[in-house]
Design goal:
DNA-directed RNA polymerase RpoA/D/Rpb3-type domain-containing protein, DNA-dir_RNA_pol_RpoA/D/Rpb3, alpha+beta, Gyrase A, domain 2, 18 strands, RNA Polymerase Alpha Subunit, Chain A, domain 2, 29% strand, six-stranded antiparallel beta sheet, 21% helix
């Protein structure tokens, strides 16, 4: 009996590559005028086995395809591209940076594993008010103080337990003592700003009895090498804390400790961490002259440019696809959906991190990666 040929050897089936429509479905999100399509990711390793394509995730393939390209960076924010990853991983980094969501997880869902991670910061937790004659209630004033970003590297501090004394390794102390006065037509200290928070490196200066001690600093924080050259202060000096009228005063002391965004948003190290799929714009027809000018006029994001085709003819090209906001104005109208195809790359993400100032955005991202590695190693250890 002769050996039957393998189905993979049949000439009418492609070997090692997908048909165009399946490749589009696997790698792109198609954004039509009414709704997107192909939004789900194909996770099953044998989904395309009939075409000789292995869809399984392999570490070696991931190492070859994964790239990070930084587009711009400064002290407050950064934008970079993450290429060659799934949406679950991109969302995991975002959730690591924002906060921690506790709870049990399924090992099969990587995104849920990463949600358990977090990047800590320093924020004001306790406010001891000696005098407050402003119109702001004590609770509201304490909440406003807690939301002020503190310029202090949390890696130099330890977590403080509820029953632990405040010391130089787990607590930062600030004082605020402002009195609004009038001298002729001039009013002093009408606006209380965050720059008026004074760092107390030696610890609390509040009076206390023999039973209560606010801090127990062994040495001044300004004598520690990590703070000698970079004094601790509020990240932004012009945040308005309160408005005072002549005769009103605020006298208080604040204690900042290390915490995570799961407990309260004031400990979140980022103002926002977001991502979006990289846009792809394909002109399915050749557009010239009036149609080219109409397409340029339709786009509010100015993605398209007119190009000279020679002999007085005008064409159009997608000069800045990265700026596309997916408003879909270019595919609205009669026959425009046949001329322009809006797509998103499923494995190419534009990631933006806006720091609150406690740590630079590039450091926040590297810290998130360290947390991710640590969590994965712990899970692997538990499974083994």
């Amino acid at each position: 009996m002769k050996d039957r040929p393998s189905v993979m050897d049949l000439p009418d089936l492609p070997k090692g590559e997908l048909p165009a429509h399946l490749e589009l479905q696997r790698t792109r999100v198609v954004c039509a005028a009414d709704a997107p399509s192909y939004t789900e990711s194909v996770q099953y390793s044998g989904a395309y086995m009939a075409f000789g394509v292995d869809n399984s995730l392999r570490l070696e393939d991931f190492k070859k395809s994964f790239k990070v390209e930084v587009k711009y960076i400064n002290d407050d924010d950064m934008e970079f591209d993450m290429i060659g990853i799934d949406a679950a991983l991109a969302n995991a980094f975002r959730r690591i940076l924002l906060a921690e969501v506790g709870g049990k997880f399924s090992v099969s869902h990587l995104a849920q594993i990463l949600i358990l991670s977090v990047v800590p910061t320093m924020a004001i937790e306790k406010v001891f008010i000696a005098n407050n004659t402003s119109v702001i209630q004590d609770e509201v004033l304490a909440h406003r103080l807690g939301m002020i970003p503190i310029k202090a590297d949390p890696r130099h501090f330890e977590y403080k337990a509820d029953d632990e004394n405040a010391n130089e390794k787990n607590t930062i102390v600030f004082k605020l003592n402002v009195v609004c006065t009038r001298k002729g037509d001039r009013v002093n200290n009408a606006s209380v700003k965050s720059e008026q928070l004074i760092w107390l490196p030696e610890g609390s200066e509040m009076p206390f009895d023999t039973k209560t001690k606010f801090t127990a600093f062994g040495c001044g924080q300004d004598k520690l090498p990590e703070f000698a050259s970079s004094p601790i202060c509020s990240q932004y000096p012009d945040i308005t804390i309160a408005k005072l009228r002549p005769g009103q005063a605020i006298e208080l002391e604040c204690h900042a400790i290390k915490g995570i965004g799961k407990t309260h948003a004031k400990w979140s190290p980022v103002a926002t961490a977001r991502y979006r799929m990289h846009p792809e714009i394909v002109l399915t027809e050749v557009l010239e002259d009036d149609l080219a000018e109409e397409l340029v006029a339709k786009c509010p994001a100015k993605v398209f440019d007119i190009e000279d085709l020679g002999k007085g003819r005008k064409g159009v090209k997608a000069a800045r696809p990265r700026d596309c906001t997916l408003c879909r104005e270019c595919v609205r109208g009669e026959d425009w959906e046949k001329r322009v195809s809006l797509r998103r790359l499923k494995e190419h993400f534009i990631f933006t991190i806006e720091s609150t100032g406690s740590l630079p955005p590039n450091v926040l991202f590297t810290e998130a990666i360290k947390i991710l590695i640590d969590k994965c190693q712990r899970i692997i250890a538990e499974l083994s």
